[in-house]
Write a structure and sequence with these properties.
Elements lengths: L2 E5 L6 E5 L17 E2 L30
Antiparallel strand pairs: 1-2, 1-3
């Protein structure tokens, strides 16, 4: 079972829970509001070390493959 990070939209409490993928979102231990699952940031590296999947990127500011 993976760990998931949750943040309460009401009181901003942050918690990490060991849960199954299809378990219901937990309630905040402080205020009882249903917590929001946080999606982890993942950076994929493409050709040439850029963060784009191809060398034809023209939109992202961090792309090192732009000419």
């Amino acid at each position: 079972m993976p760990f998931y990070r949750y943040v309460c939209p009401n009181c901003k409490e942050e918690q990490t829970f060991l849960m199954r993928m299809n378990d219901e979102d937990p309630k905040c231990p402080k205020c009882g509001t249903k917590m929001d699952k946080q999606i982890p940031r993942v950076q994929l590296k493409g050709v040439g070390g850029s963060s784009c999947a191809s060398n034809s990127c023209s939109g992202c500011s961090s792309c090192s493959s732009r000419s």
